[in-house]
Design brief:
Blueprint lengths: L1 H5 L2 H18 L3 E6 L2 E6 L3 H20 L12 H32 L1 H38 L5 H12 L1 H16 L1
Antiparallel strand pairs: 1-2
Length: 184
């Protein structure tokens, strides 16, 4: 996983930008589902989207796990919690695309009561995944600043890193060169 950390900022940006653009150009693959007399079109996950998400998650994982080894022993960070919060959005996305979305369309057609439950589950999964990704950005920005300062840091110390990681494509240009220095 040090592969992502050793990439230059333009290489990482190019990898992520090219996979994202290739997905947009190729278009999303769709599946048409016919239920009785209604037809639903469902967008499937493209392999290029999987590649893009894998690169982003791999980069986050590399920052959180590999760089965490350079943190001073006096600073304790919750790596296990980070791993779970990085894995849970992936699991919920797979669950959503493999099961929940088809069931949602099926229940909308057959009855409102079961679809309301599925819509609620779907929205809760979405919000929880967003929360998990915010925590991963928080953890990684705290890791980067802790390594730079070699001490315990507060949120006010690493708010810039948090914003740069949140503004993902732009933040790569500033954060990745600093990460390259930490790896050397």
């Amino acid at each position: 996983m040090t592969f992502f950390l050793k990439l230059k900022h333009w290489q990482l940006f190019g990898l992520l930008f090219c996979t994202f653009c290739a997905f947009q150009i190729s278009g999303a693959s769709t599946t048409v589902i016919s239920l009785k007399d209604r037809t639903f079109t469902i967008t499937e996950i493209s392999p290029l989207v999987i590649l893009f998400i894998s690169c982003v998650i791999g980069w986050y994982y590399s920052i959180g796990i590999i760089l965490n080894k350079k943190i001073p022993a006096s600073v304790k960070m919750q790596v296990t919690k980070f791993k779970w919060f990085l894995l849970l959005p992936v699991i919920s996305t797979i669950f959503y695309y493999s099961f929940l979305r088809f069931e949602l369309f099926n229940s909308i057609y057959n009855g409102i009561s079961s679809s309301l439950i599925l819509v609620t589950i779907s929205i809760l999964l979405l919000f929880f995944s967003i929360f998990c990704l915010f925590y991963c950005i928080y953890f990684n920005s705290k890791t980067i600043k802790t390594i730079e300062l070699q001490r315990y840091v507060n949120f006010s110390d690493f708010v810039n890193e948090f914003v740069l990681l949140f503004l993902f494509p732009i933040g790569i240009w500033i954060i990745q060169p600093r990460i390259n220095k930490m790896i050397k």
